[in-house]
Specification:
Layout lengths: L1 E6 L6 H7 L2 E3 L3 E3 L2 E3 L10 H9 L5 E2 L4 H13 L3 E6 L7 H15 L5 E5 L5 H15 L4 H11 L3 E6 L4 H6 L4 H10 L1 E7 L5 E8 L1 H15 L8 E5 L3 H15 L5 E5 L2 H7 L4 E6 L4
Parallel strand pairs: 1-2, 1-6, 6-7, 11-12
Antiparallel strand pairs: 3-4, 3-5, 8-9, 8-13, 9-10, 11-13
Helix pairs in contact: 3-4, 5-6
């Protein structure tokens, strides 16, 4: 018997977690010294007010969880005699996993018979969500934890994501993009095309001037590395830009057919704190990353 955990940085909401019978770890963000835990401090994420706040100049910060916080999530499962599988966002993206390992080490000393499995999706937001949704279905269907881990390993690079940032100051502030690059990008409307590498890091792979050309570039990359795109789930990102995301969906349907399984996902505020408003992207089935 085991319990499935994931986190809000994988864009899993409480409604999705309830549907599959999984548990959700909340990853916080801070605005004006007020720390907020998604789905703990509010029930439903409202993207428009949050991203409008960013458009008006707010620059949120994010932070790692403490070992004690992880213990509060995990200990009840160990105490109840259940092992844990945690499918999470990229370890290369955050120092929070140092705290997780400390927490698990402490718990395993207290509950030596229990096992802790964790899987690094080598991604964040939509590309992690694709993998969590697959694993959650296997879990709900009763698949044992070792088989779920095996299937995740086999498919981790079969999901890719490409997106662009509208205003580079958010990446510039978080260290994802150098300050001068962020400044020049804002002046000349340069949109870097970013993807998640096999190492689980965000890397710039292309660029375009203006939103229309950036969307065209995204679709070029989908076509280039995609594998049976039309017959697999496609996720389209929106950071407070529903109309822009709908434009991407329309382009995808034009290319791959009106009946494709495509969903627009409101990117969670913790990740939105890094990429800022008016960003879109596509997570899709691929040959490799």
């Amino acid at each position: 018997m085991y319990t499935f955990f994931t986190d809000t940085d994988c864009d899993i909401t409480p409604a999705i977690a309830e549907e599959y019978g999984i548990k959700l770890i909340s990853m916080p963000y801070t605005i004006d010294d007020k720390e907020t835990f998604p789905y703990i401090d509010f029930e439903k994420f409202e993207p428009e007010p949050f991203y409008e706040l960013l458009r008006k100049g707010a620059l949120p910060k994010t932070s790692a969880l403490s070992p004690d916080t992880y213990i509060k999530y995990f200990e009840p499962e160990f105490a109840a005699g259940r092992d844990i599988l945690y499918v999470h966002f990229s370890e290369a993206m955050s120092g929070t996993y140092n705290a997780m390992y400390l927490a698990v080490e402490e718990l395993k000393a207290k509950y030596p018979e229990r096992k802790f499995y964790h899987f690094d999706t080598k991604g964040i937001t939509l590309v992690s969500m694709q993998q969590v949704l697959d694993a959650a279905k296997w879990y709900k269907d009763g698949m044992d934890v070792e088989e779920v881990m095996k299937k995740l390993e086999e498919n981790v690079y079969k999901w890719s994501v490409y997106f662009y940032a509208d205003d580079l100051k958010f990446f510039g502030r978080s260290g994802r993009v150098s300050g001068i690059t962020a400044t020049m990008g804002s002046i000349f409307h340069i949109k870097p095309i970013i993807y998640m590498s096999k190492e689980g890091k965000m890397e710039s792979i292309d660029k375009a001037v203006g939103k229309k050309k950036a969307i065209a570039k995204l679709l070029e990359h989908v076509e280039e590395v995609g594998d049976d795109v039309a017959n697999n789930r496609i996720l389209v990102a929106s950071t407070g830009c529903q109309a822009l995301a709908e434009e991407v969906v329309a382009n995808l349907k034009s290319k791959y057919g009106e009946n494709i399984d495509v969903q627009i996902i409101d990117i969670n505020p913790t990740i939105g704190s890094h990429c800022g408003p008016d960003c879109t992207g596509v997570a899709f089935h691929s040959k490799t990353r």
